[in-house]
Amino acid sequence: MAWMAVIFLFSAQNATESSQTSQSVSYRIAKWQDRLLGQEKTEEELLIQAEKMQLVIRKGAHMSEYALLAILFLAHLGCYSFSRRKTILLALALSVCYAAADEFHQLFVPGRAGRFADVCIDGIGSLAGIFFYSIVVLCRKDDAKHH
Q1: Which pTM value belongs to this model?
Q2: Among 2, 41, 71, 105, which residue's CB has the most CB atoms within a 10 Å radius?
Q3: 43-64, pLDDT tens digit by residue?
Q4: What string of H, E and C letters represents the secondary structure of 21-82?
């Protein structure tokens, strides 16, 4: 529930606030990359790079937040005696339903829009989270067999 609230709060940011947040993250990444690679870019070059990266950063954030949401759903649903398949399908369905509800919510936020494409991106992130979680669980089970 707490993670769903975090997602909701980010979605409640108006278009200006949301852009500033992603621009700030993009700029920090551009600056970090510049230092790491020793490129010594000017401030203007860093801002241009940050602007170019912004879409990828935004969509990556969508995928990441829904990957974590799906993992949290899996962990919670794992406490019940559902089959593995049913647990995965429920986690995916809950994640995608929340993504759709979140995009609907954005229709009422100034300057924001609810986009079906974002629901799809969130769904892909959810699948990635489920895949990651499943690999970790399988590896742990396999490791337990060998000890």
Answers
A1: 0.85
A2: 71
A3: 999 999 999 998 899 999 999 9
A4: HHHHHHHHHHHHHHHHHCCCCCHHHHHHHHHHHHHHHHHHHHHHHHHHHHHHHHHHHCCCCC
